[in-house]
Amino acid sequence: MAEEAKKEAQEEKKGKSKIIFLIPVLVLLIAGGAGGAYFFFFKKGEKKENNLASPSQIGIMVDLGTFTVNLADPQSEVYARIAITMEVSDEKVKAEVEKRMPVIKDAIIDIISSKESNFVRSPDGRETLRLEIIRRINTILVEGGVRNIYFTEFIVQST
Prior knowledge:
Blueprint: H1 2-51, E1 60-70, E2 78-88, H2 91-99, H3 101-113, H4 117-121, H5 123-140, E3 146-158
Antiparallel strand pairs: 1-2, 2-3
Helix pairs in contact: 3-5
């Protein structure tokens, strides 16, 4: 009988020690899961917002000059005079743009001169033109890319 009582007491101690060991492990697991859920749901959204260009994160502006080109109108002589400023992310990209300036200007002249006046006069046409210029310049650049293109002067005139 005394032996059985000792065995029961030892088993009770083992059971209590298991519970004492499991409680901190469970608390750590719950805290880790809660922390992981917080970072997954809340910090992920903050990163997306930070990737958007805010006014304080404006890139470096590169003036490409003014382009005066004949447009592709078949019925009349129409020309466009467009001044373009390009936004790039850093100085390395700016240096590459300056190095490849003749190629970039040639590409822009090709793009603009292939458009008709009705196309470039509409807001949708200008936006399409902007995107087409960005895509073409990004294929020319190796170091980085163009963030945006700004038309600082845009005149279409027929003679």
